[in-house]
Amino acid sequence: MTPVIDVWNLDVVDSLEPVFSLGSETSKKKKRKGTESGHEGHSDAVLDLSWNRNIRTVLASASADDTVILWDMSERKAVTCLTGHTDKVQTLHWHPFEAQTLLSGSFDKSVVLYDCRDPKESRRSWKFSGEVERVVWNHFSPNNFLASTDDGFVYCLDARTEKPLFTLKAHNGEVTGLELSSQIKGCLVTSSSDKHVKIWDILGNKPSLIHSRDMKMGVVFCAACCPDAPFTYTFGGQKGGLRTWDVSSISAVNAAFGSRERLQMTAPWSSPAAMAASCNVTDFAMES
Description:
22 strands; 4-stranded antiparallel beta sheet
């Protein structure tokens, strides 16, 4: 794994090289701390990326060097280094509607919520029962986010409060994939090192299992939902590479979600989550 981020142009067929790269191999030798601008990049492997859909030139990267870096894509350089964690940062997610709000999750068993206008002073954090595998904002309830851990739990939290809205023992291994349907409210899909993919109905913060399947892919590393087809998911596994599954082919899924209204968000709106992010540094602990 590498600290370098390659950016490719998908409109170019059979491209041999990236359009440009962020960071460099030489930065491996420089372990940096602080939030000053002007960094060259990460000093260890990049573990996750999140693109800011509200400010299209901003990219966030999470790394095994314990930091999150914000990149200016137009200038092709790092502008801010976030140091809210004490161990490897392996997941992060920009808020879908608030350009300044960023979540990150780490091996240190914490999730940090940053207001990137003042990330050193304006942040809050929560502690969990295990290493944080995935974080994701609920685009249907913009104050809420979900986090999964390596001990099989999924937590749903309101960014303004301390205690989780629900705690779910989802799998027998680490929950490596955590993906809400792009259009169907309450439809959550999880994947795990226990080789299973599970479909949940979390409407009303009362999670219920709809369907479980052994994907025959070995460990399932990740899951993603198609933005245009709300029941179409893609999974990456230990065996067989990538696999796409239309979960609406399952009768139980149709019974649970088939008549549910499809919702499409076409424009950002303001929510109180940014107010939560702009508070002073706060720490919360979660128990399983």
